[in-house]
Amino acid sequence: MKIEILGTGCSKCKALEANAKEAIAKVGGFHSVDKVEDLVEIMNYGVVSTPGLVVDGEVKSTGKLLTVDQLVEILQS
What we know:
The chain is an alpha+beta fold.
């Protein structure tokens, strides 16, 4: 599973990345987490409010700092 965190480096973006890594540890398995900071790439996803969460190319969340439990739910669905 490929997970991308979209954001330019704000505190919420960094927190979402940390929460995603913690959620992955809970879920187990092999998952990659990439940080996307390029505005053009972020806009290509149609995201205008960061942080954004993309799982396997599908935007799952924008503009929210998801909790670890919320991320676990998204990763397991």
